[in-house]
Amino acid sequence: MGLQQMSFPLLQNSGEMILQQSSFMYNERKEYLGEMYIIVGLGNPTSRYAGTRHNVGFEVIDCLARKYGIDVNTKKHKAMIGKGTMEGQRVLLVKPQTFMNLSGESVREILDYYKADESNLILIYDDISLAVGQLRIRAKGSAGGHNGIKSIIQHIGTQEFWRVKVGVGEKPAHRDLADYVLGHFQGEEKEIMEEAFLDAADAVIVMMKDGIEAAMNQFNGVKK
């Protein structure tokens, strides 16, 4: 009888602990919804690809991380991620580690975990149709030949997510496309791109604070 009497409080306490743990996990995922942006910069992992044209998304994430003191050093969801706030706004900074062509796997996993959708997303990536350093803000659109964006569209099932395209210049006629986007910036391109990374980071902030139209009005256009 003593054992039976003791078992009920233990079961009750155990149930309370399970409820508390479930509530904590739920809150961890839900705390960002509506007021949280998942900011994804596309690129390829490892030092081999650092500083290449295809990795401009990583560079912009690094700019945001430095400016707002966010450590993007947690390996989770096939990505390096960092949680923090920017201008009072909760954010998750993301650098997928799947290699470019499989970026959608990471983005899909993150959206599922946080029970978020495309309205929480901002994508940052390179665009060979834009001049070096030129920005173009878009609310939606096709992959435009970009395999990373193609993968994301396939995995999340929509083209309607905000994006910041960073121009890396048109491929020379004699060069292979893969060789070009995996190549490094040369000469004065480096200085232009350093400014472009800062501009792209600023564009993300404007998108969050003032909306997509304000960002397009401010940042779209030919880079001078």
Folded structure, characterized:
The chain has 224 residues and is α/β, with parallel strands linked by helices. It folds into 2 domains: 1-30; 34-219, Peptidyl-tRNA hydrolase (Rossmann fold), CATH 3.40.50. The chain is 44% helix and 19% strand. It has helices at 2-30, 56-68, 103-113, 147-156, 177-181, 188-210, 212-219, and strands at 36-41, 74-76, 79-86, 89-96, 121-127, 135-138, 162-167. It has a 7-stranded mixed β-sheet. A hairpin with a 2-residue loop joins strand 3 (79-86) and strand 4 (89-96). The model is unreliable at 1-12 and 17-34 (pLDDT under 50).
CATH superfamily of the largest domain: Peptidyl-tRNA hydrolase
Low-pLDDT runs of 5+ residues are 1-12, 17-34
C-alpha termini separation? 85 Å
How much β-strand is present in the residues? Answer: 15-25%
Which second-level CATH architecture of the largest domain applies?
3-Layer(aba) Sandwich
Helical residue percent band: 40-55%
Q: At the third CATH level, what is the topology name of the largest domain?
A: Rossmann fold
Secondary structure layout plus pairing:
Layout: H1 2-30, E1 36-41, H2 56-68, E2 74-76, E3 79-86, E4 89-96, H3 103-113, E5 121-127, E6 135-138, H4 147-156, E7 162-167, H5 177-181, H6 188-210, H7 212-219
Parallel strand pairs: 1-4, 1-5, 5-7
Antiparallel strand pairs: 2-3, 3-4, 6-7
Kindly list the characteristics that best describe this protein:
Rossmann fold, 2 domains, 224 residues, globular, single chain, 7 strands, alpha/beta, 7 helices
Could you provide a short overview of the structure?
The protein has 224 residues and is an alpha/beta fold. It is built from 7 helices and 7 strands, in the order αβαβββαββαβααα. The chain folds into 2 domains: 1-30; 34-219, 3-Layer(aba) Sandwich (Rossmann fold).
